[in-house]
Design a protein that fits this description.
With 566 residues, this protein is an alpha+beta fold. It folds into 2 domains: 48-100 and 114-216, Penicillin-binding protein 2a (Domain 2); 221-267 and 279-552, DD-peptidase/beta-lactamase superfamily (Beta-lactamase, 3-Layer(aba) Sandwich), CATH 3.40.710.10. Helices cover 36% and strands 21% of the residues. The strands form 6 sheets. Strands 2, 3, 4, 5 and 10 form a 5-stranded mixed sheet that branches. Strands 12-11-19-18-17 form a 5-stranded antiparallel sheet, with helices on both faces. It is elongated and about 130 Å long.
């Protein structure tokens, strides 16, 4: 009897087990077959995906700690299931309005991708509400905060500092120093259910992200701002194409300002032509015009072939060499000039005759001695070395032409450094943009007595010559004007095109700053003495006052208005 009961129970259990197996099998067929598409959609609603999030980049500060670039939390728009977006074209258009990306590209991602999809990343923090409104308007997309970049001073130093994109630096120092500025990345598992999205770090991390590191530049924000204001005023006055102003300290090579126009707002770089991002101070080379006569005079004095009081016949201001006739911009005030007078009155004929007397090898040696033809030690990506052809490529016209600034091209930073080498007393000035970097051992490239003679000649340019508009009341100034015609180029209405320069340093008896101003393709006024010199005086006067106040706790007497003159 007991055996029969036990057998019956086993039979019931077996039947029950078979029934459960049949139900499970039927359910499996139902899920994987009949209801496959519905459950597939549901799986997307409870999705997970691994993504990489950038950690904050190092902040860029000016020399006094003012913030030029920093990392902040920014909104990013994404969707877990593009197929769930009802109005894809409308969403793409709305996202395009806040991100600047072409709506067609956004729409393409929405149509082609399944699963987690970025629609816009690292939008400006000020557009947070707009981004949230888009997510509210288009169900199926949402916001996530990522570390993005902000530039509190907007356009100030933007051509130097540069800008970033989703994947790193795009221009300027942000691109040059991209690897060093990056704060690394962190991997997250993104999980979403019907209610919310959760980011789960894939490694053990502290609750509070570390404070991003800081990188300090040599730039003085106040001097930079002044230089940019003066360039804006000058650009508006003469409707120039491009303008550059550089201020540096000849004692240590620190670049205090590097202003460039046109410029852009790095918070919204996509709204500007990429050409406006360009740092013309280091990336582009131009004919230097008469500012290059500094090199000719350094060669004349350094070689021992000439003294400042030696004379050169300039006649009526014309000199024919082969098929070319060289002209002075203004007729000479007398037929014979000393070297000092050649520089003060910017005689092309006088400079050409000096160069021809020195010979090609001497001129070439001094050109290379000043560093022309090679990028500077700044080593910025894309930095131009300018054009200095080897002697084997010089024609019979090259030597006289180069002697007054034709047939060579230089970058604004190269030209500023040449004047810094004289201001330093003959020591090579190594430029620095990273604050506090190690200074190399001093290297003398010009004898001290040659620099004293050049200094006296450059002072005469401002007191008695073409650079009178660079005078600063109460300050002794040394410098040189330059006006370079852009040979072979004319404006659309047939005008000849020019570049106006002034380069120099002050106070001449104890140089604190070297300043260069370049105005490219001015309209109306074209001469460096009329355009660049007044701008130079305004910038230099402010820089001297700023440095005196900042370093000494007081203020030296420097008038803000430039001197008058031609």
């Amino acid at each position: 009897m007991r055996i029969g009961v036990k057998a019956a129970r086993l039979k019931v259990l077996a039947i029950f087990g078979l029934a459960l197996a049949a139900i499970a099998f039927g359910r499996l067929v139902y899920i994987q077959g009949i209801r496959h598409s519905a459950y597939d959609e549901a799986s997307v609603e409870q999705a997970q995906e691994q993504i990489t999030i950038d950690m904050p980049r190092a902040s860029l500060l000016d020399r006094d700690g003012g913030v030029l670039a920093t990392s902040i939390r920014c909104p990013s728009i994404y969707t877990f299931n593009p197929a769930k977006i009802a109005n894809k074209a409308g969403l793409a258009s709305a996202v395009s309005m806040v991100s600047g990306e072409d709506a067609r590209d956004i729409l393409g991602r929405l149509k082609e991708r399944r699963g987690f999809t970025w629609l816009a990343r690292k939008l400006p923090y000020g557009r947070y509400e707009e981004a949230q409104a888009i997510c509210n308007r288009f169900p199926g997309c949402d916001l996530m905060e990522e570390w993005g970049r902000a530039y509190p001073q907007a356009e100030v130093a933007s051509n130097l500092v540069g800008c970033v994109g989703t994947d790193g630096g795009l221009s300027g120092l942000e691109a040059d120093w991209n690897k060093g500025l990056q704060g690394g990345t962190r991997e997250y598992m993104v999980m979403r259910d019907a209610v919310s999205t959760t980011l789960i770090p894939l490694e053990i991390v502290p609750e509070v992200d570390p404070r991003p590191p800081e990188t300090r530049l040599t730039i003085d924000e106040s001097i930079q701002f002044c230089a940019e204001q003066v360039l804006d005023e000058t650009m508006n006055e003469v409707r120039a194409k491009t303008a550059v102003a550089i201020v540096l300290d000849p004692r240590d090579g620190d670049i205090l300002a590097m202003a460039v126009r046109p410029t852009f707002d790095p918070n919204r770089p996509g709204r500007y032509p990429i050409a406006d991002w360009r740092n013309h101070a280091v990336l582009d080379a131009y004919e230097p015009g008469s500012t290059f006569k500094l090199v000719t005079m350094a060669a004349a004095l350094g070689s021992g072939r000439f003294q400042p009081w030696d004379t050169v016949v300039v006649g009526n201001g014309t000199l024919t060499v082969g098929p070319k006739t060289i002209h002075d911009d203004e007729p000479p005030i007398k037929p014979v000039y000393t070297l000092e007078e050649i520089l003060a009155h910017s005689s092309n004929v006088g400079a050409a005759k000096i160069g021809m007397a020195l010979g090609q090898e001497v001129m070439y040696h001094y050109i290379k001695l000043f560093g022309f033809g090679e990028p500077t030690p700044l080593h910025m990506k894309g930095e131009s070395g300018g054009l200095v052809r080897p002697l084997t490529q010089w024609s019979m016209l090259s030597l006289p032409s180069i002697s007054f600034g034709q047939e060579v091209t230089v970058t604004p930073i190269q030209l500023a450094l040449a004047y810094a080498d004289v201001a330093s007393g003959g020591y090579r000035v190594i430029p620095r943009i990273y604050f506090g970097g190690d200074a190399p051992p001093p290297e003398r490239i010009l004898p001290a007595d040659v620099c004293r003679e050049l200094d006296a000649m450059l002072r005469k340019v401002v007191t008695d010559g073409t650079g009178k508009a660079a005078a600063i009341p109460g300050v002794v100034v040394a410098g040189k004007t330059g006006t370079a015609q852009k040979i072979g180029h004319k404006s659309e209405d047939g005008r000849k095109l020019f570049i106006a320069y002034f380069a120099g340093y002050a106070p001449a008896d104890d140089p604190k700053v070297v300043t260069l101003v370049m105005i490219d393709e001015p309209v109306g006024k074209i001469y460096g003495g009329a355009i660049a010199a007044p701008a130079w005086a305004k910038i230099t006067a402010f820089a001297l006052k700023r440095l005196a106040t900042d370093r000494n706790g007081g203020s030296m007497e420097v008038a803000m208005a430039p001197g008058t003159g031609q």
